[in-house]
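F.,

This is the one I mentioned.
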């Protein structure tokens, strides 16, 4: 197979939103990350898995869920930064993973965004961020409302950070049912859209 390029993405999200399951679906590998139906965190360390999709080497970096039961958020902040600094090829995109069945913009989401901003330590990285909504079951979510109101709420909150006031990130939204990625055509198309978005971004180095 002719390898045309390599891309790397990083996933952030609260515990239990499906980051690892999303990683398996995005990589088209059921065995990439360990998943569980329990509400506790499955990912206790920063973990990178890869696959070749349509001639592209795709790297997915899974991170520990914020507000996990282990209470390692502050310490984990530095672990994530150190891990990303070792990625010599750079990072193409960062994804905020959210459960569309619980789309509240609560204190947990706000704290996660603050942590991400600390990890970035550079406002320009927000221009390489997208949102992936998991558990998008047919007829059980309002895509239009989420793509407008929720997305704008996130952007407005980010613009409240020091140095981010003049940002206007595109922040595309994607809607997936990761559990059924093999059979759900809508989810398959969304992951193609994700890969297109990632492939068009120049990698940035920490």
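My design for it:
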């Amino acid at each position: 197979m002719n390898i045309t390029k390599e891309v790397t993405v990083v996933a952030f999200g609260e515990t239990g939103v499906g980051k690892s399951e999303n990683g398996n679906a995005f990589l088209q590998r059921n065995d990439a990350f360990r998943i569980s139906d329990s509400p506790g965190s499955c990912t206790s360390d920063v973990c990178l898995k890869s696959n070749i999709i349509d001639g592209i080497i795709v790297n997915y970096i899974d991170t520990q869920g914020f507000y996990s039961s282990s209470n390692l958020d502050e310490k984990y902040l530095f672990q994530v930064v150190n891990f990303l600094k070792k990625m010599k090829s750079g990072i193409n995109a960062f994804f905020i993973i959210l459960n569309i069945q619980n789309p509240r913009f609560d204190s947990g989401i706000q704290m996660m965004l603050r942590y991400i901003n600390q990890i970035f330590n550079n406002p320009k990285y927000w221009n390489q961020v997208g949102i992936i909504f998991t558990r998008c079951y047919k007829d059980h979510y309002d895509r239009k409302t989420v793509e407008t109101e929720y997305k704008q709420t996130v952007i407005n909150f980010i613009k409240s950070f020091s140095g981010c006031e003049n940002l206007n990130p595109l922040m595309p939204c994607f809607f997936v049912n990761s559990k059924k990625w093999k059979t759900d055509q809508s989810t398959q198309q969304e992951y193609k859209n994700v890969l297109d978005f990632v492939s068009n971004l120049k990698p940035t180095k920490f």
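The radius of gyration is 16 Å.

Talk soon.
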